[in-house]
């Protein structure tokens, strides 16, 4: 395996920086490969096929590789991962992830004993396209949730209002207010409107996320320049999609970089996303830093800069409500995933319940 031959992996995201980081982790029997698609205990990977002789050169091919079932780390592979495989096409090592889009998932019953877990949607992503259909319900709260997920991953988010040719009124300014620090644009894969601007902001590995019916696969096909991913029309009644995409799959982009299409997300739970929430609501947190009290709840405290911004119209009540909702959810999931936090929260609730019982007893014993 030579460094010159590894350059053939450039269309799949290989760089000189990755070579410097990954090659010291490999021995001569292992070859780097990128996961294109996962399917149970097997995965499709793009890898270097070594030359048969010194007079020939190697080439890159997409092959089917197996994953050892006994290795819990490798069993959690996802599209976009870089791995090391052996000559028997067995994945032997998961190479360090630069970024990862992670959402929360709760296994078991929906009660206090359910086990908290996470799911990696895509790895080593540089740009996240948060997609929503401009001709339907542009849900700002859902966009903020997906932005928190994207910011937390370490990638750069771009909000794309798709199907721009079908929309009578595109709320670009409202979305920009809900997405500080992120590029917001409207595009139509069908008419080509805005596609040149979108292509110009893409960098490295690009992942598309959003609900079913947002036009992700149609947008992906337009960026790839061919009908790679299956598409389907949304239901006329509620504009909902039909989950046409069922796998996460990576493909090289014609102009450089790679693209990962993902299935529609019906629910997105946050997983350890405090940084992502902070980036999504950087405007609100900027106002909060000017509050008189460091622990201001932004209710009726004197000197609350957040309430003042809402009263002046600089900030909306909807945005504050959304911020609180995502923070509560993030703390709740953190408590489920951390036994210490969970025990502390249960102790606090027992204390509150004890105080309430004492209060009711005192009220009942007072003379009338």
TrEMBL record:
Record-level Gene Ontology MF annotations: GTP binding; GTPase activity; metal ion binding; rRNA binding
Cofactor(s) annotated in UniProt: Zn(2+)
Calcium as UniProt keyword: no
Domain EngC GTPase: 123-266
Sequence ranges of Basic and acidic residues compositional bias: 359-368
Class of this enzyme: hydrolase
Cofactor annotation remark: Binds 1 zinc ion per subunit.
EC number: 3.6.1.-
Residues reported in the UniProt entry to bind GTP: 162-165, 210-218
Keywords: Cytoplasm, GTP-binding, Hydrolase, Metal-binding, Nucleotide-binding, Ribosome biogenesis, RNA-binding, rRNA-binding, Zinc
Sites where the protein binds Zn(2+): 291, 296, 298, 304
GO cellular-component term (any): cytoplasm
Organism domain of life: Bacteria
Annotated localization: Cytoplasm
Purpose: One of several proteins that assist in the late maturation steps of the functional core of the 30S ribosomal subunit. Helps release RbfA from mature subunits. May play a role in the assembly of ribosomal proteins into the subunit. Circularly permuted GTPase that catalyzes slow GTP hydrolysis, GTPase activity is stimulated by the 30S ribosomal subunit.
Family: Belongs to the TRAFAC class YlqF/YawG GTPase family. RsgA subfamily.
Self-association state and partner proteins as the record states: Monomer. Associates with 30S ribosomal subunit, binds 16S rRNA.
Protein name according to UniProt: Small ribosomal subunit biogenesis GTPase RsgA
Gene name of the encoded protein: rsgA
